[in-house]
Design goal:
Elements (H helix, E strand, L loop, with lengths): L1 H32 L4 E20 L2 E8 L3 E11 L7 E8 H8 L8 E6 L1 E8 L3 E8 L7 E18 L1 H23 L8
Antiparallel strand pairs: 1-8, 2-7, 3-6, 3-8, 4-5, 4-7
């Protein structure tokens, strides 16, 4: 009889103990351990270099800006003809400092961005190294001066560590499973064996 009683208690005790262990473990993971498990997250912030520049282009205008390394540069250009205010075209070249010196002295230079469009247009290009970049507006092909509105920004990518929310979900799932197993262990009645 003593052997049957101990088996009966063990049958009830195993799921109950497992349920308590899972419940406690789940609560510990969700509340105590979860905030210390972090994950690296990248955030993209748009930084304005030139929010709104308005200028007149006769022959050539050079606007230089200091840009950080490994960023995407984004901007818009609106070109209108000075006397009539109708949309017009202008040539835009973006050069780093070294290629600007070559271009300015009449040599062969490679540009990061080159476009000749009419009206309003957007531009995007990627730079690898930081430094001074020259935005050259060339209007030598036209008899009329051009009125230009320019905006320039770049995407800055920052990396930071934040708590991983998935760990909390795992902890709460363990706690729920542990609670269910605990209830099962407490209300379960073992089958009676007739000897």
């Amino acid at each position: 009889m003593c052997l049957i009683l101990s088996d009966y208690r063990m049958v009830l005790f195993k799921p109950t103990l497992t349920g308590i262990a899972l419940l406690v473990l789940g609560l510990l993971v969700a509340t105590m351990i979860g905030p210390y498990v972090t994950v690296e997250v990248q955030e993209v912030h748009r930084r304005s270099v030139e929010p709104h520049a308005e200028f007149l282009v006769g022959d050539v205008v050079d606007r230089s800006y200091n840009l950080p390394p490994t960023t995407n540069v984004i901007g818009t250009v609106l070109v209108t003809e000075a006397p009539s205010n109708r949309t017009s075209d202008v040539s835009l070249l973006v050069l780093d400092a070294e290629n600007y010196q070559r271009w300015n002295s009449g040599g062969q230079a490679s540009s990061l961005y080159s476009e000749e469009k009419q009206g309003q247009f957007n531009f995007t290009f990627k730079i690898d190294k930081g430094g001074i970049y020259h935005f050259v507006f060339d209007n030598r092909a036209s008899l009329y001066k051009k009125y230009v509105v320019l905006t320039i920004a770049y995407d800055e990518i920052t990396t930071k560590r934040v708590p991983d929310t998935r760990v909390g979900y795992v902890g709460w799932a363990l706690a729920i499973i542990g609670g269910l197993v605990l209830v099962y262990g407490l209300v379960r009645k073992p089958s009676v064996t007739w000897a």
